[in-house]
Amino acid sequence: MQNEKLSLVEKLGYGSGDFAANLLFHTWNLFLLKFYVDVFGISATAAATMFAITRLLDIVTDPMVGIWADRTRSKWGKYRPWILFGSVPLGLCGYLMFITPDLGPDGKLIYAWISYSLAMLLYTVVQIPYSALMGVMTPDAAQRTQLSSFRFFGAFSAQLLTGAITLYLIDSFGGAEGDLSSGYRTTIALFMILATLLYAFTFISTKERVNDGKTLDSSQPSSDIKGDLKALLTNLGWGVLFVSALFNLIHVAVRNGALLFYFDYYVGDQSKAALFFSVGSVSFLLGILLANFLVKKFAKKHLLVTLTCCTSVMLFAFYLLPPDAYGLMLVFNCCASFVAGPIPVLLYVLYADLADYTEWKTGRKVMALIYSTMLIGVKAGLVVGGALAGYLLGLSGYVANQPQNQQALETIVMLVSVIPASFALLSGLMIIFYPFSEATMEQVEDELRQRRLAA
Fold it and tell me: Quick one: DSSP state of residue 4?
């Protein structure tokens, strides 16, 4: 059963989970800072501080969720119950972030802190087990690459959808009087309901095969959490991937957090952002479709270094573009998105490889713990990037809903070009130090298969 081929429905079901996740997270990533500053009335600096401080909790909560998920016993398996029972409160808290209660300045900030913190915690509760699910659906590296491709095709289809229609929906639901708070509230409600239904489909359509849903064997006592963490943290491969993920998501968050400001104040037409987001997401999806072909031709490590460096070059080009060069903006965005498409597919396959290597080397099954610690890097990158965008805007003299001074405009341009490009380059250069070759992982996969069959 462990080598059973996955059906198309199961692959689609797994991919729908990241479609759901990105209906939530990509919407937050693109629109939350703008909503807090221009609609809810929180300063950019206060929002940036909130993003940074609340995420310090992830250092504790993310590994704990991973450890608990690895030790979950249920008739549905280890990871699928977390997706089912966490998705409803996640959708509710995601909605609550975008309502605008009539509170004073301090009350608004307190409300934002509470709703944002709860939403991020629940996102962890659902997304860590979802990420780990790929590793127990199949032990086969080729099928994992296919699952990762379906996952990120779902993820960036959601990004395409949110980038293409969110501004239109906000304007439409805001009515003729332009009530942005109502527009945000109704749009986010629709997204959260759809995300919850898609998570349910993931639960229904997928199956945990590796270890037949059992959590532990006799060689891994359930209380030995310290041993699990030691096995992970002393692994050079883990450290390389963690730092690379941190730099990669800083580049994503800085740029995404600044793009609406870029089109609103530098280009002078925020409506042009919708097409920009859409063509970028389509290009990214095409890049994802290329991932399976590339993996058959080249080593994953070399691919990641090359693709990330190419992405960096494309982003640097935005520093040279004048505000009226919209056509060139679309071209460079398409190119950057296309070469970046295979990157998350390859990274998440490496995470699963790392979990297999840890099990092969130490006998410890830490699939969810791997993804939880990587998610710390991902969310830390998103938070640092978002906070960096907010702080730099505040320091530049940015004033909401007003024409910006030259320093603010220059800062906005840097936030979509030089700064994210630099972090993208650092992310790619880190992968040079990844220690496990393709031949090593083939040996690991073969020996683990024999162990599981014997068990």
Answer: P
CB 254 within 8 A of CB 385: yes
| Spatial distance between the Cα atoms of 424 and 428, rounded to a whole number of angstroms | 6
Is the Cβ–Cβ distance between 209 and 27 less than 8 Å? no
Phi, psi of 402 (to 5 degrees): -135, 155
pTM: 0.69
Span 374-403, mean pLDDT? 80
Write out the H or E segment, with its range, that includes residue 313: helix 300-316
260 within 8 A of 273, measured Cβ to Cβ: yes
Are the C-beta atoms of residues 260 and 394 closer than 8 Å to each other? no
Cβ(373)–Cβ(232) below 8 Å: yes
Torsion sign over Cα 78, 79, 82, 83: negative
Predicted confidence (pLDDT) per residue in 159-172, tens digit:
878 877 888 898 88
Token output for 22: 């990105």
- Distance from C-alpha of 348 to C-alpha of 165, rounded to nearest angstrom: 28
CA nearest 259: which of 22, 17, 21, 29?
Answer: 29
User: Which one is the CATH code of 8-209+222-439: 1.20.1250.20, 2.60.260.20, 1.10.10.10, 1.10.3720.10?
Assistant: 1.20.1250.20
Q: Is 309 exposed, middle or buried (0-12, 13-18, 19+ CB in 10 A)?
A: middle
Q: Which of 2, 348, 308 is nearest to 153 (CA)?
A: 348
Residue with tokens 């097409």: 275
**∠ at Cα 248 (366, 139), nearest 5°?**
30
**CA distance between the termini of the chain:** 13
Q: What is the tens place of the pLDDT at every residue in 428-440?
A: 999 999 988 888 8
